[in-house]
Amino acid sequence: MDSFTNSERAQVLTQALPYIRRYNGKIVVVKYGGNAMVSEELRQQVMEDIVLLWLVGVRVVLVHGGGPEISDLMKRLGKKPEFIDGLRVTDQETVDIAQMVLAGKVNKTLVKLLDHKGGRAMGISGMDGGLIRARMRNPDLGFVGSITEVNIQPVMDLLEKGYIPVISTLGCDEEGNTYNINGDTAAAYIAGALGAERLIMMTDIAGVLRDRNDPSTLIPKLSIDEAVKLFEENVIAGGMIPKVECCIDAIHRGVESVIIMDGRVPHSILMEILTDEGAGTMVVKDNG
């Protein structure tokens, strides 16, 4: 923007006005992780995007993971990370580490960044206020949880007070056991419970590709029926399967649309919300 004239800046803002009007007062949930979280430059830009949306009246909820940070602390403590089908094997010591990292360092770092950029953020975990109730998903995985219930009231309370809720994906059961929850799954449940206008899933690739080795084959929009066909044709495969399944789950739970977005693109959130260009693959109920 430094090379823009004042007239060009004004034109950009004017073009964004219809989108600002559309999303004013609406809830947008951002699932944040991957390279956008690891890269300091991208992290700063994501926080700027979120604060800008908040300032123009969008009710933003930030749901975050922190897998690389958990693995890093485990290694520093002499504990080797183990995974089964992409899910972290989580014994009692590991879930304690996850709680320290997710509800502690990562969550409060993001809150601090949002505040520094001019926002008003409040950090909570899925354990606070009974937000996420969970049960053990698989005994072989240990304290990895499946969500059984979401109490969205703590998040609504923060939104109504004008805060940006920043949520770490931990849950607990009636016995007080803590569980590490998959971030995409938690975001889908939370967005559904909020009746969000949009869920943005930030990831490390351009979106859903017809040819996974060719970014130019990006599919900009998918209905649920079209996504099911792409599952059958093995176009959606590997790590993209659970992401698209979470998108479909979020839509069934009441979210208007879900974006699988390339978090490596600077200011991709603003491109998606405030322009026609978009930034990734949009999953919707139907294309009718």
Describe the structure.
This protein has helices spanning 6-23, 35-38, 40-55, 67-76, 92-116, 153-160, 183-194, 224-232, 240-252, 268-274; strands spanning 27-32, 59-64, 83-84, 87-88, 121-125, 132-136, 145-150, 164-168, 170-172, 178-180, 198-203, 221-223, 257-262, 280-284. It is α/β, with parallel strands linked by helices. It has one domain: Carbamate kinase (3-Layer(aba) Sandwich). The strands form 4 sheets. It has an 8-stranded mixed beta sheet, with helices on both faces. Strand 3 (83-84) and strand 4 (87-88) form a beta hairpin. The chain is globular, with a radius of gyration of 19 Å. The mean pLDDT is 89.
Distance between the termini: 38 Å
| The level-1 CATH class | Alpha Beta
Could you tell me the mean pLDDT?
Answer: 89
Spatial strand order of the main sheet: 5-8-2-1-11-13-14-12
* Unreliably modeled segments: none
- Note the main sheet: 8 strands, mixed
Could you name the CATH homologous superfamily?
Answer: Acetylglutamate kinase-like
Radius of gyration equals 19 Å
Question: How many domain regions?
Answer: 1
Based on the coordinates given, report the CATH architecture.
3-Layer(aba) Sandwich
- State the secondary-structure class: alpha/beta
Question: Could you tell me the strand content as a percent range?
Answer: 15-25%
CATH topology category name: Carbamate kinase
